[in-house]
Amino acid sequence: MFEEAGRTPVVQAPDAPAGPGWVAEHRAALHELVDDLGAFVIRGTGVSTVDHAVSVSRALAAPLLPEKEGFARRRTCADGVYSSSEWPANQPMCMHQELSYALRCPGLLVVTCLRAPESGGGTGVADAGAVFEALPADLVDRFEREGWQLVRNYGGAIGMPWQEAFGTEDRSEVERYCRDNAIDFEWDGDSGLRTTQRRRAVIAHPRSARRLWFNQIAFLSEWTMQPEVREYLVAELGPDGLPFTSRYGSGEPIEPDVVDLINEVYEKHTRCTPWQDGDVLVVDNLACAHSREPYRGDREVLVAMGSPQQLPAHSPTTASA
């Protein structure tokens, strides 16, 4: 293994292409390593196909978790293995933890690079415990007391259709899912759905008990959008019609400067190793947030969400998971 300041640690597989079998053989050691580091890159595996990526993902993170409540389209490659989110190549994707707004979220992410881009496109990681400790105590205290609230509008000309996000055409199944997962919902005509859910902003890691900043307060915020995009959406849909936005747990709006501050703290704690073909990034999804740089050229990256973790709904009196 080698480490460099500002870079995600890299584990070098044997000189000969190791393939998915090597990853499966060293599963226990790799799990110990992700517990210690939070995230690392495996390099030199020879992983080059979708089937390879699926095998590696299952070896490291089974059982894999189907995505619910998706916020952006993905291509399904196999059960629990997806393309990266459809997101403009010239725009960054800021730090977040996958499905941190869901009560059942992945404990591990396995991200496989089949084709590295011409430039940029790195997947950054940030230590969620360090971010928690670096944020102002009064801000953290408020979010620990109140949690955070996510409001989403599905359907219409803009935003994710609810049929894709929930994987069903049956409204009764969506309603059942929402009731089972502490999500308030309201239908709007034939195609629209508005949901509101209150979640914890801070959890304790189930193994280390370390307190972690675990949410998508900044990522799923209207203030993280490009200003011209937000202005257009507000003009077209109204302030309550945005595809998503985050609020304090009380329902009060989160100020733009708070979102800026959170993103600044993330940036200070970001590590990123540029992709090479065949790289496999392993991320503890609770202990680390992740992001994506803008890029040029073709980029093929697959993601698997596995080792599911069940989180309780927000309680105003406790921050542990």
Instruction: Write the element-wise H/E pattern from the N-terminal end onward.
Output: EHHEHEEEEEEHHEHHEEEEHEHEEEEE
Number of DSSP-assigned strands: 19
CATH topology (level 3) name of the largest domain: Double-stranded beta-helix
Level-1 CATH class name of the largest domain: Alpha Beta
Spatial strand order of the main sheet:
1-2-16-6-19-4-3
Mean pLDDT: 91
Proportion in β-strands: 25-35%
Gross morphology is globular
The largest sheet is: 7 strands, mixed
The low-pLDDT segments are 316-321
The DSSP helix count reads 9
What's the number of structural domains? 2
What does this structure look like?
- This protein has 321 residues and is an alpha+beta fold.
- A 7-stranded mixed beta sheet has the order 1-2-16-6-19-4-3, with helices on one face. It has a 4-stranded antiparallel beta sheet with strand order 5-17-8-15.
- It has 2 domains: 10-125 and 274-310, Double-stranded beta-helix, CATH 3.60.130.10; 131-262, Clavaminate synthase-like (Double-stranded beta-helix, 4-Layer Sandwich), CATH 3.60.130.
- It is globular and about 55 Å long.
- The protein is built from 9 helices and 19 strands.
- The model is unreliable at 316-321 (pLDDT under 50).
- Strand 3 (76-78) and strand 4 (81-83) form a beta hairpin.
- One of its GO terms (molecular function) is dioxygenase activity.
- Its cofactor is Fe(2+).
- One of its GO terms (biological process) is antibiotic biosynthetic process.
- Residues 24-304 form the TauD/TfdA-like domain.
- It comes from Saccharopolyspora hirsuta.
